[in-house]
Amino acid sequence: MKKHKKREYNSSELINILAKVYGFEDKLKAFEVKSFLENELDPSLFSELEKVELKEDILLLKIQSPLIKHDMRMKKSFFLKKIQETFGKEKIADLVIF
Questions:
Q1: Residue 1 domain-assigned (yes or no)
Q2: Which of 52, 76, 82, 85 is most exposed by smallest CB count within 10 Å?
Q3: What is the pLDDT of residue 14?
Q4: In the prediction, which pLDDT does 32 show?
């Protein structure tokens, strides 16, 4: 009788595999980006962030405050570059702030 090898996965690998199989890979990546932004942004700025969504390779950020929205649009290239350095250009090609 042959012994089959047991496959061992750590939890993050398993979550990534399940996300790919069930088609919610973009939502998982958006959650990772939101966690990254929480660490990078000032708490008052982060509290204005209403929604983080990833559609195809475009990151969508919905911001409540018009002033902060304008400020983030002015710094869009800075934020996009920083996010791309962390997550890769192939995963996030553009940033839309609305």
A1: no
A2: 85
A3: 83
A4: 93
Between CA 12 and CA 83 the distance in angstroms is 20
Residues of the chain with pLDDT under 70: 1-7, 9
Helix axes 76-87, 66-74, angle to 10 degrees: 70
DSSP per-residue string spanning 57-74: TEEEEEES-HHHHHHHHH
Whether residue 60 contacts residue 51, with contact meaning beta carbons closer than 8 Å, is answered with yes
What total of structural domains would you count in the chain?
Answer: 1
7 belongs to a structural domain: no
Give the pTM.
0.80
Predicted pLDDT of residue 12: 80
Residue 88 lies in a domain: yes
In contact, 68 and 45? CB cutoff 8 Å: yes
pLDDT of residue 16: 82
Distance CA 90, CA 70 (A): 26
